[in-house]
Amino acid sequence: MSSRQKEDRTGARHYRLAHRTTYTYPGVVTSSYGRAVMLPREGGGQQVHTSALHISPTAAQTGEHRDFHGNRSSYFKVDTEHSELEVLAESVLTVTRKQAQVDRMPMISWSQAAEVTHTLGAPGRGGDSGHGVNGNAVIAVSEAMLASQMIDLTEEVRAFAAPSFGPGTPLAHVVADLCSRINSELEYKSGSTTIHTRLPELLEKRQGVCQDFAHLLIACVRSMGLAARYVSGYIETNPPPGRPKLRGVDASHAWASVWVPGGGWLHVDPTNDQFIDNRYVVLGWGRDYRDVSPLRGIVFTEGKGSSLKVGVDLMELSAQEVEDVRSSHVTSGPPRAGARGR
Amino acid sequence: MTDLLAGYRAAGPGHDEMLQSTGAAREAWAQMADLVDLHDGAALAARSHDVVELLANNGVRQGAGNEERPWLLDPLPVLFDEAQWAHVEAGLRQRALLLDHILTDVYGDAELLTSGLLPPALVLGHPGFVRAVNDIRNPGVHQLFMVGTDLARNADGSWQVLADRAQTPSGMGFAMQDRRIVAEVLSGLYRHARIRRIGPFFQAMRRAVRDAAPAGAGTTPRAALLTPGPYSPAAFDQAYLATMLGYPLVEGEDLVVEDGRLWMRALGKLEPVDVLLRHVDAEYCDPLDLRGDSRLGVPGLVEVARNGGVTIVNPLGSGVIDNPGLLTYLPRLARSILGEELIIPSTVTYWCGERSMCSHVIANLDRLVIRSTAPGAPVLRGWELTIAERADLAVRIATEPYLWVGQERVEASTTPAVNGGLLEARPTQLRTFAVSGADGYEVMSGGVARIAAAGSDVVEPGPNDAAKDVWVLSSLPHAYSDPWATDDAGPGPVSLPTSISPGSAEDLFWFGRYTERAEGTTRLVRAVGDRLSDYSVTTTSGFPLRPGSDEPVVLAVLRQVLIDVVGDGEPARLVLDARQPGTVAHALARMARSASSVRDQLSSDTWAALSALERALSAERRRQDRDPDAVADVGPVAARLIEGLLAIAGILAESMERDVGWCLMDAGRRLERSQQLVDVLVASLHTVHGRADDSLVIESVLIAHESAITYRRRYQSQPRVESMLALLLLDEHNPRSLRFQLRELAASLDQVPAPARGTRTRDELLSDVVDLLDELDLATIATPDADGHRTTLVTTLESMSWRLRELGDEIARVHFTHPVPVPWLDASGTFATPSSRGALEENGELT
Questions:
Q1: Do residue B120 and residue A124 have CB atoms under 8 angstroms apart?
Q2: pLDDT (tens digit, 9 = 90+) per residue, B238-281?
Q3: Which of A60, A61, A195 sits opposite B826 (nearest CB)?
Q4: C-alpha closest to that of B745 among B806, B680, B674, B805
Q5: Which fold has domain A102-276?
Q6: Separation in Å, CA B344 to CA A260, B436, B677
Q7: Residues spanned by CATH 3.10.620.30 within chain A?
Q8: How many CB atoms lie within 10 A of CB B681?
Q9: B441 vs chain A: nearest CA distance in angstroms?
Q10: What residues does the Circularly permuted ATP-grasp type domain cover (chain B) (predicted)?
Q11: pTM tops 0.90
């Protein structure tokens, strides 16, 4: 059964997402505090049917709120003594997102776009900016222009960006070109970087993982006075032809999203050199990796060190399977109505 | 005598607080001039000297680590008359309301950012803006709990605001300390003048804490003050404030989040904290949701604040108010939010995030003050930069313009300050404080003024710039205000728990140990030093000399005792060298450090005694520097040190509540004294010498342990080892004996709440030592072997010694340690590989 068959006429794809993280400690952990951004957000061509975090040992306290960027942020605290902690995020969702077509994007040039971006929310403007952007969207765009912890706007970044920013080039073309250049000029190499790797070092080595590629694209865009943000999520992987899909072979993914005046946020994946489509699941977004790291925490223990195992499964479901899930689960929606997202 | 006032001239063309442009003194100052006698240089110098001494006696310090130094305070206050102050106060109240509105908005609906009143980048790009606390709301009328505002007066005599401080407004403790000291030094004037008290401000703060507490906290919410610890530059200020308010001073590791609340770790249990007065920068307060590498915070603190389990003041994120770029927009915000003009304008500030202002700043770099909006960034005086530096700066500004401001220079008004016997006109700025109240904000009637070097501009006071008290004169006689009358609607007496944190407990334990170490070492060095002076080589006739040496045996033995127990060196060095562990000076330094960590637990008299000890050491060092060749007799300095240490012993015995903290302090003392006694006995008794030598050694040991008089009264005989051991080891009535120490140690440890895992090892170690003591047969062990050694005695004592050492470690293990928070491994780095792309291409789906 090919995956093609599971896509219905509307272009919807259905998934069961399971992201399991297991920590093993040499000593006894007396308590553990965790923060996760692992439950996918709604919208943008994504419908979340069920979504929940399972902690083992059972958490004594849990909580969820919408973070500054509107992502679903989960908190948990484990009081039971343990030497192994498992965090499992499970969701069932439908993705109807269509891939953006460069030719159908607004033809606004990058320099005009930069001018619009700059004047958004400028003092004295008030209310509607005239670009269909107001309220929290102004904040989202304004924030996405600024340097952030992982995004240094250095000379090296500007120099790398420059060739894609020809005079009068439409912004959507600039983004597509940057995406291709990062994909071809940098080598994807697992383990070549860490979460602490900064952009100048990346540009020096020309090797990295999806997180680095996303950071670089964002930095290039921001260095020209435009807005871009970091997106955390997953991409569906297909097994080689004729082989069954194995469990736990999928993985976290990350890409960038660029604000195009009149066209909204354009999600672009430099790791795979494409705009995202219905094979991608969005967890959440922020200024850079640090705003949406999927899982982090603090333990109280007298032992030293720990080891970590991660497995992600993004399995396709048929329309009927999704219907079964929906009818047997109470939909776990957003934590509170009216919570805002940026 | 020349009249100093006649020689006082305001430094520049600017405003002087004391003199009018006609040269006559303003009324308030004229009154002070007469009462304080500003005309008399010698009297002024004497008052300055008094201030320095009082500051030292109160242990008032600023800075930390190598930067630590005494707090400097000018004896002459800055004076405000009633009308002037009314204007300033109204301006500060208005400003606090406005800043509260901004703080509430940017972490709430953010209408200021979306309506074009505040540029979003100004707030979103500022490091003080903490996204993790978005949407958290404290109970109470205001989100801004308190604010510090820096003011200066322009050349034209009008006030302006230099900066607002809401991250962790510091200086309130210094304000109160300064007031106490200046009021004492100028007591005649202070009583004569009608000066507004600043005490009511601290009562207002306690009311504000109550009003901000979570709903579930009841009528007597429990508060604590979170400090980065004794190494914080503002450690004194924080500890003093905690003491003033009566709240425990805690560090991050003393707190824990459990069951949706914040708790203070007390020995053996947890106690709830409802309101946390935060003196740690927000980013460092929670390693889970804020900076993961912080060791100053509490994991889960943000979450528990979000759920209303604790109120943090100032709220996390308040540092966004400290952004100097806000000054540009305050006039407009005041008009649109309050419908008012700012009563006190701010320093003219250009935020470079707006293009027109950015161009203006870059074009005027040579005459503007330039600063980054980031907290703690250095201030650049454009006119002091070279052309190349200005060009570099222009590039940096152009790269991230929203992170920079340019400000017009401020030529602050001058006030008279005492320099030696002279009066100087020094530029002055003022830190004021406001705290949330039911009806707007309450402003402290005073504050902390800082003076800069003559002729300089007070953009930022430097480390060597003195402070001044600020007096607001009142036309009304002040009503006596009851310092304990905290609340209008206060409940009846409530007994709050007085337990202490493991951190404070450990500091008190070490304070006890170092105090005893200082005393024991001083006594031992003095006893040996006296012998060395008495039996100098020329007067040794009759005493056997060491073979091959012209030194009497007794001196060699005593020298070796010092080496074994204290360390290598001449007696003077063993007293004075603070770098060598084991010396008196070293123990005193550790003692002072432990004390400053538990300032809120100690009597205020402690500081005068500590200061006297420090002075005794300094005086002796100076004496030796003057005359390095003189025979170093440690007698006089030792006498003064023992005097000071006895004063501390008296304070500990007579002025401290017998709570858990005291018991640990006492346990530290008893343990240290036991250890030292056992070690001295081993070092002095292991080998038998001649009868006369042994007598002298025994006598010195008795003197060092303050038991010589008792011994003589009781035994009236030539000193004998057996009777000495009876007195120093077994006698339960001798407060210097080992038995006495062990009994008291057990009694003190008994009062300390046991942790969950129990105290078995600790108690076994102690009872082992008691058993060893009980089993001693003095007649046997005092008798030497055939080869002249007291092997059994030494073996027994050494076996006691290592158990005592273990006991010290075990006490620390059992009572002071708890698990350390460790960040999880980062789960990233397990990202999808682009192999997915290959697969997609095989399916022919990639366009």
A1: no
A2: 999 998 898 989 999 999 999 999 999 887 788 999 999 999 99
A3: A195
A4: B674
A5: C8orf32 fold (3.10.620)
A6: 43, 19, 67
A7: 102-276
A8: 27
A9: 29
A10: 77-452
A11: no
